[in-house]
Amino acid sequence: MKSALLVIDMQKGFLSPVSPLFIAGAPATVSACAHVIARCRAAGVPVFFVTRRYRADGSDVELARRERWRAGGKPLTPGCAEEISEAMPACFGSGAGDYHIRKPRYSAFFSTELDLVLRRLGVDHVILAGTTTPNCIRTSCYDALSLDYRVTVLRDCTSSATEEIQEANLADMARAGAAVVSSEELELEE
């Protein structure tokens, strides 16, 4: 089994309380995410940062978020305020072999080159970290399962607006076939 870590949407636009896209549980996961990123790099497991970036005119913002995005300073766009930008936490660092994928919607696989790159690397197991669990993590999980990847979701490296939402979505992904473990329980294989 060859693994890859997918770190999804861990950007200031989702981590900052001043952002209209803020996810209440996300800041508490930054340290655990940084730790698992470092572990993966050290073990030779490819790290993929799958992120959002919107056009300044908002033409690519999801319909469900568009009004909140406009009213809240247009987070995740070039030139927006730093505290709501697409920047990731500095503690994640940067690895020479890291991959960066931009996604236009919730799933890391939807209209991206992710599946192609993973297959070329021989990856058959994806490890999911990031935010938000009911949207981006869950849709990425289901798309990965549909594409016949083994999936592990890191419970302490994912987040939702409330603990109840988090637990319900983790349970649903486990029922669908994903392994749900803590980052400390994660066994890494190249």
Can you walk me through this structure?
The chain is α/β, with parallel strands linked by helices. The protein starts with a strand and ends in a 9-residue tail after the last strand. α6 links the parallel β5 and β6 (179-181). It has helices spanning 12-15, 30-43, 66-71, 114-120, 133-146, 163-176, and strands at residues 3-8, 47-51, 99-102, 125-131, 150-159, 179-181. It is built from 6 helices and 6 strands. A 6-stranded parallel β-sheet has the order 3-2-1-4-5-6, sandwiched between helices. The radius of gyration is 15 Å and the shape is globular. The protein has one domain: Rossmann fold.
CATH topology, anyone?
Rossmann fold
CATH evolutionary superfamily: Isochorismatase-like
Q: What is the name of the CATH class?
A: Alpha Beta
Number of helical regions: 6
Q: How far from one another are the termini?
A: 7 Å
Record field, number of beta strands:
6
The percentage of residues in β strands lies in 15-25%
Strand count, sense and barrel status of the largest sheet are: 6 strands, parallel
Q: Which structural category fits the helices and strands?
A: alpha/beta
User: If strands are numbered along the chain, what order do they take across the biggest sheet?
Assistant: 3-2-1-4-5-6
Number of domains: 1
